[in-house]
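To the team - alpha-D-glucopyranose complex, inputs and output below.
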Amino acid sequence: MKPSRLLLSIPLAFSGMLAWATGNLPIYQDETRPMDERVEDALSRMTTQEKINLIHAQGKFSSAGVPRLGIPDLWMSDGPHGVRAEINWNDWGYSNRTNDSITAFPALTALAATWNPSLSFEYGNAIGEEALYREKDVMLGPGVNIYRTPLNGRNFEYMGEDPHLASVLVVPYIKGMQQNGVAASVKHFALNNQELWRGHIDVNLSDRALHEIYLPAFKSAVVDGDSWTIMGSYNKIRGQHACHNDLLLNKILKEDWGYKGVVMTDWGGAHDTREAALYGLDLEMGSYTNGLTSESEFTTDDYYMAKPYLALIEKGDVPMSTLDDKARRMLRLNFLTAMKRNKPLGSVASPEHYAIAEKIGDEAIVLLKNASVGKKGPKLLPLSENIKNILVVGDNATRDLMKGGGSSELKVKDNVTPLKGLQAIYGDRIKYTQGYRAGKPMYSNVEKIPQAIQDSLRDEAVSMARNADVVIFIGGLNKNHLQDCEAGDRIDYSLPFGQPELIEALQAANPNLIVVLLSGNAVAMPWEKKVPAIVQGWYLGSMAGKSIANVISGKVNPSGKLPFSFPVKLEDNGAHHFGAISYPGDSIRQEYLEDILVGYRWHDTKKIPAFYPFGHGLSYTTWQYGKPSASAKTISENECLTISIPIRNNGQTAGKEVVQLYIGDDQASVLRPLKELKGFEKIALKPGEEKTVSFTIKPDDLKFYDDTTGSWKAEPGKFNVYIGSSSTDIRATVPFELK
Ligand code: GLC
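Output:
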C-alpha cells in the first residue's frame, strides 16, 4: 500500500519547517528559488546510482525519487479520459480497490468534435483534479496521433485527422491539467497511427508528411502547451525505435523545439541501452517486468537504463553528461509535481466534474442526418414531446463502454447509459430490447456469439418495432478486441455483430428510425439512404446518456462537427489506396504513400467525395453566412490578412455553429492539398441573432515544409480562403495574392 502523500510529507515538512524557521532550507527544497538552481543543487547531492534510479521504473506505474534527500517517488496513471483504477505494484492486474472509482470524461475524439478550446481547458483541469485526489503526478495522455485509417483501434483516444484542429485543442487540455501540478504526457510520439504490429513496424514517410501532418500537434503540445512529459511510441521511424530516436528526439524535439521536459517510453518501448543513453530517452517504463518472474531474475535494476547503462558509463563508453541531462529533467518534473507543496486538493466524481462531462458530451454529438420520414412533414429530430411509444434497441444502449479498450479503460462511479438517459426524459414511454449481442470486452480475443442468438434478438426487436411510434437504435462499435481497442485494429470497415442487417430490418418494420452510433471511428453505412436520422454519439463517458437524451429530445441543439472523414468505402481512404505496404505494412516496414493527402486532403484533392466530410455537423436551426470582407487583396510575405464574415441564426432555435476557415494554394510548385484547415471559431447565436466572425491569416498559415531546405516556405502567387460549415459545405471563397 503506497504510504499516502501526507505520511511522506511529514518528515519533509518537519525538516522543511525547522530549516525554514531557521532560514536555511536546502536550495533544492526552496520553492522560492529558480528551478534550475534547485535542480543543480539536488543533482550535486546525488550519487550516480541515485541518478540511475531516477530514470527507470521501480514498479508498473511508479519511478523512484531520492529517499535520502526527501525527493518523493513519482506516480503515474492512465489515461486520457480519466484516472485508471489502481494497478498492482509490478504486473498489469488491477488491485481491485473499492476507493478508486472516478469520472469518465468523453473520449478525446468527442472532445475534438466539440471544436471548443475552452471546453478542452475545463476537461484538462477536471481530469487534473481527479488525478490530484488520486495522488497521481503524471497522467498518461492526451493522445494526438493523426487519424490516418478508420481501422486504427485507438483513434477514439486521439483528436482526428487534421493537424490544426488537434494542435489547437491539445494545448488547453494540457494547460488545464498542469495548473493543478499534474504533468501531462502527450502521446504517442510519433507515427503510432495503427495498432497492428505497433511494437515494431518501421514507419517510412516523406519529410513533408512528417512535418505537415504528423508532428504539428506534438509541437503545439510541447511548445505552446508546455507538456511536462511526452511519451514515445512503440513503432520504429526510418529504422530506429521512436523511444530512442536521434532524429525525432534529439534533433527535432530537443534541439529544434527546445524541449526541456521528460521523454518517457511507452511501456516496453525501450530496446537498446546505448541508443537510450544517446538518442533522447529520459525515463524507461514497463520494460517487461511482468511481475510474474521472481525479482532476482528480471528486476527494474536490469532495465536497459539501469545496470547496463551504469556499466557503459563506468567503461567510459557513454559520457556521464548523458545521465546528468536525464536526471535534471526528472528532477524538474518532480519539483513541478510530486514535490510541489501548495497544490490544490483535487476531487473525484463531483457534481462539477459530471457537469463538465455532460457539457462536453452535449457539444460533441454530431447530427449527421436529419430528414422527415415521408416526403414532407417535420424532421424526425428532435423527438416531439407527444411521442408515446418509443422503442430503444441496441447493445450499446446499456453497455458500460468504459470497460475494455485497453489502457484507457476506466472504473466509473456512475454510468448514465443512453437507455437510462432516455428513460429519465421519456419515462415508461420507453421500451427496450437488445437487438444484438456484442460479447465481453476482452483484450486479445473475441467472444463468439452463436448466430441463433443474434437471429432471435433481431426478430424480437423487429416485432417490437412494428408497434412503436419511433425506434431509436443505439449501436456502433465498442471496446472489444478488434473494435475500438488498443493492441489491435478493426478487420473491416463495416458495423460488427450483424448491425447492418438489423438496421435494415428495423427500418423495414418502422421507417421512423433514428440510428445513434457510439464509436471512435468511421463505419460503412450501406443503409444510410433509408434512415431518416443519424447521430454520431462517440464514447461520452459517465454522463453519455444525459447528453444523448439532451440532443434527441431537443434540450440541447447539437453543434458537434466531425474531426475525421467518413469515407463511403475503405478504399476511398488514402491509406488504403496503395495496397498493403501502405496499410498495414508488410509486418516489418510500412510506407505512408498517400503522403500529405490524409483524410479530407485526400478526398478533396483526388475528388473522391467522403460520405460524411470532415467538419460536417447539422443543427436544429439553420445558419446564414453573409458576404465576407478582406483587409487586402494582396499581401506581402510578412503581412497578415484579416477576413470577416457575418453569420446569422436563421431558425427558431438557439444554437452553436463552428465557422471553419480553409486555405488553398493555387499556384504551388509542389503538390499541395486543395485546402487545409487554418482557423475555426465556435459561436453561439439566438434565433435571428447575427455576429461577425473575423480570422487573421498569418504568413505561417500559407507555408508548406520544403524538404529540399528543411524549412517552411510560402511561394508568391494566388491563394484562396474558403469559409464554410464543413470542409465541403463552403459558403464563401475569397481569393488573394501573396506578393
Ligand atoms: C500502453 C499504451 C500507453 C499507456 C501505457 C501504460 O501500452 O500504449 O498509451 O499509457 O501502455 O498503460
